[in-house]
From TrEMBL:
Gene3D superfamilies: Glucose Permease (Domain IIA). This is Peptidoglycan DD-metalloendopeptidase family protein. GO terms for molecular function: metalloendopeptidase activity. Residues 180-224 are annotated as: Disordered. Residues 202-213 have a biased composition (Polar residues). CDD domains: M23_peptidase (cd12797). InterPro entries: Cell_wall_metabolism_enzyme, Dup_hybrid_motif, M23ase_b-sheet_dom. It holds the Pfam family Peptidase_M23. Residues 256-344 form the M23ase beta-sheet core domain. Residues 183-201 have a biased composition (Low complexity).
Amino acid sequence: MRTASGAGTLHRQWRRFRRALRLPHLRALLSRWVRVWLPAWFAAVLIAGAGVTVAAITDLTAPPRSAATQQVVRHPAPLAQYDRNFGAAPQIRLNTPAQNRLVAVQRHYQLAGEQQIIAETALKSYAAERRRALRQTAARTQHAQEKIFAEREQRRIRAMVARELAERLRREQAAAEAEAARQRAAGAEPPADAAAAGATASLSNENGTTQVGTVDGATPPGQDGIPFGRVVGGVMPVASGTIGARFGAYGFWSSYHTGVDFRAGFGEPVHAVAAGVVTYAGNSGDWAGNHVAIRHADGVSTMYSHLSDIEVSPGQPVAAGQEIGRVGQTGRAFGPHLHFEVYPPGIRPGDVYRAVDPLPWLNSIGVHPR
Ligand SMILES: [Zn+2]
């Protein structure tokens, strides 16, 4: 029985241990640990983590140190001086290497941005400077081209005038010689003004066109059917009455503008500014293109150039305001307009270097262009 009793005791003890293992209070202990301590630990860990995070953020986003503090950091030597002046030295806190790297990176990008802005600004001002220089060069080039063109045109006109004069001289001499021969044959003395008479005769047919009187205006005013006198009641030659280029102005045509340019559209009617007689109507193949010349009662001639259409013929009397043609751009003209010239009494229309400023005469007959 002792054995049995001993075995029975061991068995009992084992069963007691087993019972103790299955004890509800062990489970209660466990469940209490799970319910109370685990959340407590968890909360503690969370709070600690949050604290560390907050500390890290406030540290990294802290405002830059004051200049004084930085001074102190860079030069620790004057700390004693600082102490004497301001009391205790400020708390010196050194950045961690990570924070220093971050600050360095931020400064790098800030610097790069500023350099970019400086570069862009410089580029913009350089571009503006270049554009201005190019514009100036273009303007200078155009001006030079215009000048060259004008000079070439003027040389051409001078050569033309010289040829015309030489031809006139040749014909005058031929006429004088012929007259002298005729006089010799007739056994009479040659008249003293044979040359002048020859000149007048030759000039009247200079351009191969019929003209009234002599083209150089040698016929005194009043001898061609129009009574000599003051011209009044003038009319604007084109409807606009607006001047584009004035007399003497520098332009494409020449370095010296021999008339005024009235602004007008292609095909607009052109009117005689005053009553008179048509002394030329045609195209002599030069700069004027189709043009009409009219001599007025006071001996002044007006000339209307670059016409697209001519509606009068030489010798025809015209009234003030009568339509004589249409605006065009024949001859040397850049775009349609009316080139209008005024010649004093005795000057042949087309003798451009003797043309006068049309405005005073126009104003005197009551025409006031704008
Ligand atoms: Zn003109």
